[in-house]
């Protein structure tokens, strides 16, 4: 497609890392901590919101769901604790072809930045579990960029930190509509949705995907094509 892309910003859970329901399982622990019983109408409403906002900063999701800051922080701590337990128990794996795709992108002279809606503590837990501490040029979480998705902050922070000279030389890839919004709002030339995670092609295209791929494994060929 183009050899002009110099920076590739990749989402983690659902794009390069298998989710396998871990976010929803950890959310149930957070809801339980706040006294929301599984199976009732309120729990289902909250779960639907979590699914719709996959990719957004998790603390932002909990602020929407629980209102008061102290309740949102309690929910977020419970979520992170449950997610960490799942990762530590071995329920964390790379999606097929993801590591190889990152290697191909970097071998072609492109910078690769991994981004997430999780906190730095959770992001680091995942990277350590996968042995990915050095796999990318940079990793970013919302707190390190200003705002999380769907704002463009993480992509633009990646541009600044890697000294990329134009937003038109950026490709963004992710599995959620929020990833697509982030990419389009940042001015990226390529905003690629992948079908290995939360949202389907209709949502990805509605939120600005320039391309929809079966998986991130197809991204190097798209950029080199």
Notes on the structure:
- Helices cover 47% and strands 12% of the residues.
- It is of the alpha/beta class and 225 residues long.
- The chain folds into two domains: 145 residues, 3-Layer(aba) Sandwich (Rossmann fold), CATH 3.40.50.1000; 67 residues, DNA polymerase, domain 1.
- It has a six-stranded parallel beta sheet.
- Helix 6 links the parallel strand 2 and strand 3.
- Helix 1 packs across helix 4 and helix 3 crosses helix 4.
Shape: globular
The top level CATH class name of the largest domain: Alpha Beta
Alpha-carbon Rg, integer: 17 Å
Could you say what the CATH architecture of the largest domain is? 3-Layer(aba) Sandwich
Largest sheet: 6 strands, parallel
Q: Briefly note the structural class of the backbone.
A: alpha/beta
Q: Work out the oligomeric state of the chains in this entry.
A: single chain
Strand content: 5-15%
Q: Say how many strands there are.
A: 6
Q: Largest beta sheet: what is the strand line-up?
A: 3-2-1-4-5-6
Q: Please identify which CATH superfamily of the largest domain we are dealing with.
A: HAD superfamily/HAD-like
Nearest-integer average pLDDT: 92
How many DSSP helices?
10
**Order of helical and strand elements:** EHHHHHEHEHEHEHEH
Q: What's the end-to-end separation, in Å?
A: 4 Å
Topology summary:
Layout lengths: L6 E5 L10 H12 L7 H12 L5 H9 L2 H20 L9 H10 L3 E5 L4 H11 L7 E3 L12 H10 L7 E5 L2 H10 L3 E5 L6 H6 L4 E3 L5 H6 L1
Parallel strand pairs: 1-2, 1-4, 2-3, 4-5, 5-6
Helix pairs in contact: 1-2, 1-4, 3-4, 4-6
